[in-house]
Amino acid sequence: MYLVVEQLLNGLQFGLLLFLLAAGLTLVFGIMDFVNLAHGSLYMMGAYFAATFVAWTGSFVLGALMALGATLLLGIALEYVALRHLYGRDHLDQVLATFGLILFFNDAVRLIWGPAGLALPLPTWLTVPVQIIPGVYYPAYRLMIIAVALAVAAMLYLVVMRTRVGMLIRAGASNREMIGALGINIKLLFTLVFGLGAALAGLAGLMQAPILTVQIGMGENILILAFVIIVIGGIGSIRGAFMAAIFVGIIDTMGRAFLPDLLRKVLSGAAASTAAPALSSMLIYLLMAIILVLRPEGLFPAAKR
Amino acid sequence: MMPKLNASNAVAALMCAALILLPVYSAATGNIFILTLFTRITIYALAAASLNLIMGYGGMMSFGHAAYLGIGGYAVGILAAEGIGSGFIQWPVALVVSALFALLIGALSLRTRGVYFIMITLAFAQMAYYVASALSRYGGDDGLTVYKRSDFAGLINLSDRNQFYYLCLACLFGGLYLIWRIVNSRFGLVVQGVRSNEQRMQAIGFHANRYRLVCFVISGTICGLAGALLANNTDFVSPAVMYWTRSGDLMVMVILGGMGSLFGPVVGAIVYLLLEELLSQFTEFSGLILGPVLLLIVLFARGGIMGLLGRMRRG
What we know:
The complex is a heterodimer. Chain A is mainly alpha-helical. Chain A has eleven helices and two strands; from the N terminus they run H-H-H-H-E-E-H-H-H-H-H-H-H. Chain B has a domain at 45-242. The chains are: A mainly alpha, B mainly alpha. Chains A and B meet through helix 4, helix 9 and helix 11 of A and helix 5, helix 10 and helix 12 of B.
C-alpha cells in the first residue's frame, strides 16, 4: 500500500512537471497557432543553465533563479530573431524551422558543454526524506517540485483568468486579428507569451535536472509527451493541459511500476518480461490514440474559433 | 507529350542522369565512399517520395513515416535471423506487413484532421518504436544485425556494391513512376480533390476517406520497401530507425525539396544528406550550420528547392 502512495506521488510529481512544459506549448500553440518543436530544447537549456549557474554560484536556489532568467531571455531572443517571422505560416514550415533549431541547440550544447552529461547535485537540505504519513517517507526534493509546480499552476491560472494581460492572452487565443485591430500590440504580447512559455520549459528542465542527468537530447523524449498532453487536453486549453498532464503522469508512472507484476499473473514469465516494458512505454500513446479516435478534438477543447 | 523544358525539369533530368552514371564515376576514380553514400541517399529518397505522396498530394501530414522503415527492416532482419534468407519471401513479407500496419493506423488516424492527425500518426510510430525496443529475442534496444543480405537465387547479388546500388536506384525510379501514374490517374485526381476541398468531393459522391486510406496504404507500402533496402544496406536494423526524429528527417527532406513535386523529395534527400555528410567532414558540430540553414530555407525559400527553381523560370 505504501508503495502505491509513493508511486502516486511520483506520478503526480511527473505530471506536474509535464504540465509546466505543456502549458508553454499549449499557450504558444493556442495563441500564435505555432508548432514549436524546439520547446524541448528550451527545457534542455534550462537544465544546462542550472547546472552551470549552480556550480558557479555554489547556491542551488540562486543558480536556479539565474537559469530561469536566462531561459526567459533566450526564449525572447529566439522569438525576436527567428520565430516571429513564422507566425501565420503553414504548420509544416514551422515544424521544419523548429526541427532545424533542435539540431542547432543539440550541437551548440555539445560545443559548449561537451558530449558528456552533467550532474546537478542537490543541497543537503533537499536530500532528506520527509515523513508524509506515518511510515511513509518521501524525498523532500520531489515534494518541493510538487509544491513549486502547483504554485506556478495557480499563478498561471490567476494571471490568465484575472489580469488584463491574461484577458489579452485569452482574447488572442480566440481571435488574433480582432485584438490586433482593436489596437493591442500583439507583437509584444506574442513575445511575452513566448518568453513565458520558454521560462516554464526552463523551469521544468532545471527541476528535473537533479533527478535525471543533464544530457543532450533530454528534451526530445519529453517534448513528445508534452505534445501528447496538449492533444489529449485539447489544444490551447490550459485547464485541459493541467488535467491531461496529471492524468498522463500518473498513468505512465503507475504503468511502469505495476504493469510488470500484473502481467506476470496473466502471462508466463518470459512473455511478461518482454511485453511489460513495451506495454508500459506504449500506454500513453495508446491512451492518446484511443482518445483521439473517440474524441478527435481532445478531452477539453478550447472554445471554438 | 513532351515535358516542358524549364529549370525544374532540367534539374530533374540531370539528376537522374548523374544517379545512373554514378557507379561509372566511382569505378573510374576508385571512390567507393561516394557510391555507398548515394546508395543510402537513394533509399531515403524513396522513403521521402512515398511520404510526399500522402503529404504533397493527399494533404495528410504523417509524422510517423519512419515506422515503415523500421517495419520493412525488421521483416527482413527477423526472417534472416530465423534462417529464412530468401529475398522472395523476405521482401513480400516486408511489403505486406507495412501495408497492414498502414491500413490499421490509417483507418484510425483518418478520423482526425490537421495537427491531431500529425500527432496520432506520431503516437503510432512511437508505439512501433517501443515494441521494437522490447523485442529482446531480436536485439531489443541494441538492434539486430543482419548477417546475410537477402538472397535472390543468383538473380542479383545484393552484396555486390554496384548491383545493390542499381537495385536501390531501380526501386527509386520504379517508386517515382508508380507515384507519377497514381497522381495522374482518376484515383490520384480524387485524392488531390479531397485535399483541396473535402466537402465538395463528398457532395459529388466520392467516399473521401476511402480514397485517402488507399493512398495512405500505398505510401506506407512503398516506404516499407525502402525499409527492406535500408536493412540490407546497413546490415543492421534497430529501433532508432523508427524514432520520431527520423520521421522528422523524412519530413524535412520532402519540404526542403518541394512538397507536391514529383522529384522534390529526391532533391531534398540528396541535398539534406549531402549537406549533413559534407558538414561532418570539416566540423563535428554540423547541426550548428544545418539547423540555421533549414531555418533560412523556410524563411526565404517557400515551396522548397523545386519551388525556388520554378520561380526562377518566371523571373
